[in-house]
């Protein structure tokens, strides 16, 4: 573009100087709708609110156990509309009740009524690559080492159980690697999303569900350590499709 | 310029004037400078965000002040400086320290502290800005407040740096508590600015060098279930910044109680903050009480010496309830060779 007169040139130079000196960078995301949905995730064991470090829970196999750690990712949440089509919300969410990281914020979905929610437990393959997620302490602690395939742990659940002689022993139920991604079954909801209000809903994880249906997992018989042991991770994966529900 | 019409020459002058206003000059006359000068920490790729302080932001002058204080015995009456116990050759650590209360412990190294949120073996401190406040006590610097005020106020460089870093015209205007606080804050700034990310392993990660066979096999052991080191010693800091009971003790009294002594929670019995493994070859002896003199002893412990009791971290229990790694002598050598790739000699110089 050629300035037409000295004053045009002056204006051009002035504006150019302002632009190049300020280095202001702004990005904006154009969202179709100004809607917001907050999902609060709570955690129960045998119907009781999760309390760490106390051997007071019993799984279906009869193991008495406690939890010392529970952290996992939820990814690619999809909301079902009344016409059975889905709105997909990209992204992964780190959940850790001990750190009170239990809320998921979604936005930009079309206003209207939603009748179901589904998601993955873990990180979908595109992002399940070592170092892809922001290097927060939480994410780096969830890294799945490259010699084991790289990526991130999908789930870490650790605690202690009483063995057959009533001695406490540790267990570490870890799941990771792409083939262990857990597609959770759809959870019926009744959400009315609009642009005027933040829509809230709750989900609850029942920890005992990890140890039953279809397989009754027994720490002592099956194994107390699952990381990188494909058969054991598979048992948990197959049990994990229904660990969440909508509380009454 | 020759081809410009005369009428445009004044426009060129105006452009220069606008540029001068719009662009920050590279060099500002000393009298026109404002202090302190903000400092941007360069964070290595893959590192988490540093734990910066909003009340003690990094500045060039604050870091310089902290660096001088860290290395200077001006704070003490016994000839000690921070580097007396945090010796560069030991990755700003030292073999052992015995407190007046009789507790002997290995001194945690000052390395990548700007990324941490808990300090000391038992996590008794959670702010780097105040970590140095206790060092003025008789046990460490045995600081004489009167002498400290005199030395600092009469020292031309410190007077200047306190003014530039914290706008303190005269340190004598501060109370002793305020002075200690500012000193600790300056040292915290210096420690935040100290980043170690140039070990052989870092260079391997950046694809600048290759590990040799021994080191690479050790890397695989470290980052697989064979050694299972990675769950607690997480990349890139080689600490998960969590507290664990690694089964090194079977009874819990005194310092061995670890985190329990701070929180009083039974679940914290015997837990200690996971130490970084960066520069681990320089920080012997090992464990909170320095009970292991060599890396060989450490690897032997994890291989077959982990105690079994109800407090030991679940992660220490391996497949089928076993606590043994069952490493061969060669695998132990490989693991140690890998651990030595975490040495960043440049950081100690």
Tell me what the structure shows.
- The complex is a heterodimer of chains A (248) and B (349).
- Chain A has 248 residues and is mainly beta.
- Chain A contains four helices and 13 strands.
- In chain A, a hairpin with a 5-residue loop joins β3 (57-58) and β4 (64-81).
- Chain B has 349 residues and is mainly α.
- Chain B has helices at 6-22, 60-71, 82-85, 128-131, 145-154, 156-166, 176-193, 200-205, 213-222, 260-263, 295-304, 329-340; strands at 94-98, 104-107, 243-244, 272-273.
- In chain B, the strands form two sheets. In chain B, strands 1-2 form a two-stranded antiparallel sheet.
- The longest helix of chain B is centred in the middle third of the chain and has 18 residues, at 176-193.
- Chain A binds chain B through residues 6, 9-10, 13-14, 17-18, 20-22, 52-53, 68-69, 131, 135-137, 140-141, 143, 145-148, 158-160, 163, 167-172, 223-225, 227-229, and chain B through 7-8, 11, 14-15, 18-19, 21-24, 46-49, 219-220, 223-225, 230, 234-237, 240-242, 265-267, 310, 312-321.
Structure classification of chain A? mainly beta
Strand and helix order of chain A? HEEEEEEEHEEEEEHHE
> What's the gyration radius of chain B in Å?
25 Å
β-strand number of chain A: 13
Shape of chain A: globular
Largest interface pair: A-B, 41 and 42 residues
Strand content of chain B: under 5%
Q: Tell me how many strands of chain B there are.
A: 4
What is the 3D form of chain B? globular
Counting structural domains of chain A, the number is 1
* Strand order in space, largest sheet of chain B: 1-2
Terminal Cα separation of chain A, in Å?
Answer: 66 Å
Number of domains of chain B: 2
Question: Any idea what the CATH superfamily of the largest domain in chain B is called?
Answer: Cytochrome c-like domain
Tell me the distance between the termini of chain B: 52 Å
Largest sheet of chain B: 2 strands, antiparallel
How much β-strand is present in the residues of chain A?
A: 35-45%
What oligomeric state do these chains adopt? heterodimer
Largest sheet of chain A: 8 strands, antiparallel
Summed up, the helix count of chain A is 4
